[in-house]
Design goal:
The complex is a heterodimer of chains A (212) and B (198). Chain A is mainly alpha-helical. Chain A has ten helices and no strands. Chain A is flat. Chain A starts with a helix and ends with a helix. The C terminus of chain A is likely disordered. Chain B is built from eight helices and no strands. In chain B, helix 7 crosses helix 8. The longest helix of chain B has 31 residues. Chain B is flat and about 60 Å long. The model of chain B has no long low-confidence stretch (mean pLDDT 85). Classes of the chains: A mainly alpha (212), B mainly alpha (198).
């Protein structure tokens, strides 16, 4: 449960470590698309890792990226056939984004970041954390973005508005972690992805030790 | 669409980052410095070129003749995965003392939505291999045009005296937001003359 909470709060894949930025920016354009992408990630990513975890064990460690990509491609093709092929008027861009989800960070990071002796339960805990973090963060992001659009009264440039909303989210995150931001800022290590990964903390600790 | 039309569309009017919501998955980490961003953009362009050409050949010679278009996603994902493996091996031989960096960088460069979506869009739209090549290079150039200025803004904000609340990724997001808004104006001007790529 602690691992899941960590991904929901401190390493959220939407607000803190943006692993699925294209999906977030595109999928939050309308309620229908948001529901589609929540299902895509919410169902797809856990299923992919349930299967690919075992497929990865059959191959040498350096090949582990290939099975996860093949399984992801298969799962999202099935998803496309179930949800998009029967629907009429599906745009080429939506189709490409759904297909492209199979190579997004949220799918491949649990595999490429996995330790050698990883257990199935550890992988699923991480995937559950990423998925729940994505769904909660994405729903919040969509609500803010659509709220902005309703407030202004016309469709705003999606990327510009999307990044602006993300910036607001990071400002809120910085406000909630001012101590850590100050420490990393002082040690010149703030400019990292999420600013809080273990490498940063080690560097900060190392520099402080050196200075002492 | 003509080769010139594809180049202008893919690099500017339909910029992969600023119009098409694509980008490498640790986006803020990619824009640490202009030099690093330029290097990664060039690497992504090479990856895009390789994957687009290989997938175009597979599509034209295998998937379309055998009526296996349903396997497009799996095939492209597999091509990207195997290319990443090849890239890691090649990078390890070229830079044997930077194996850790190569193992971290190659999957980011080779397996991302920019490479996937641009490749699939080009293969669906382009009629010849020359158009695929031109489109891939132009999209890579579009990525360079987007990330280098954003990284310059980030570097400036890192050293500038700004409130703590605005430090870190906030500058990246705000810079991207402003640039996306500017590119949209260019896109609107060019829209009557160019067919959207995808």
């Amino acid at each position: 449960m602690k691992g899941i909470t960590e991904f929901v709060l401190n390493r959220n894949p939407v607000w803190v470590v943006p692993l699925a930025l294209p999906l977030v920016l595109y999928g939050s354009g309308s309620v229908e698309q948001a529901v589609l992408f929540v299902m895509l990630v919410g169902i797809g990513v856990p299923v992919i890792h349930m299967v690919s975890f075992f497929a990865e064990r059959w191959l040498p460690r350096m090949f582990r990226l290939v099975p996860v990509l093949i399984v992801a491609g298969t799962v999202f093709t099935v998803f496309e056939m179930v949800f998009l092929v029967p629907a009429e008027g599906v745009s080429e861009r939506l189709l490409l984004m759904v297909r492209g989800a199979s190579v997004s960070g949220i799918v491949i990071v649990p595999t490429i970041g996995s330790p050698e002796d990883e257990r199935f339960i550890d992988r699923m805990r991480q995937v559950a954390g990423l998925t729940v973090g994505f769904v909660l963060g994405f729903v919040l992001f969509t609500a803010i973005r659509l709220g902005f659009t309703i407030l202004v009264g016309r469709e705003l440039q999606p990327v510009a508005l999307g990044f602006f909303v993300l910036a607001l989210g990071r400002i809120a995150w910085n406000a909630a972690h001012l101590d850590e931001v100050a420490a990393l800022d002082r040690d010149g290590t703030l400019d990292s992805d999420g600013a809080l990964d273990s490498d940063d903390k080690e560097r900060v600790a190392g520099r402080r030790g050196g200075q002492a | 669409m003509s080769v010139l039309g594809i180049i202008v569309t893919a690099s500017l009017a339909q910029n992969v980052v600023l119009v098409h919501f694509l980008g490498l998955w640790p986006f803020p980490a990619v824009v640490h410095s202009p030099k690093q961003s330029a290097l990664i953009s060039v690497c992504v362009t090479v990856a895009l070129l390789w994957v687009a050409v290989v997938f175009w050949l597979i599509s034209r010679w295998v998937l379309v003749p055998l009526d296996l278009a349903v396997l497009e996603t799996v095939t492209l994902a597999a091509v990207m995965g195997l290319s990443a493996l090849g890239g890691i091996r090649l990078g390890g031989q070229i830079a044997p003392f930077h194996q850790r960096l190569v193992r971290q960088l190659v999957p980011v460069v080779m397996v991302n939505m920019t490479v996937f979506v641009v490749t699939m869009g080009l293969v669906h739209q382009a009629e010849s291999l020359q158009q695929v090549v031109a489109g891939a290079v132009a999209a890579g150039f579009g990525l360079l045009l987007a990330v280098v200025p954003i990284s310059a803004v980030r570097v400036h904000f890192t050293t500038a005296n700004v409130p703590r609340l605005l430090r870190g990724d906030v500058s990246v997001y705000l810079a991207t937001s402003v640039m996306a808004f500017a590119i949209q104006q260019i896109d609107q001007i060019l829209q009557p003359f160019l067919v959207p790529l995808f």
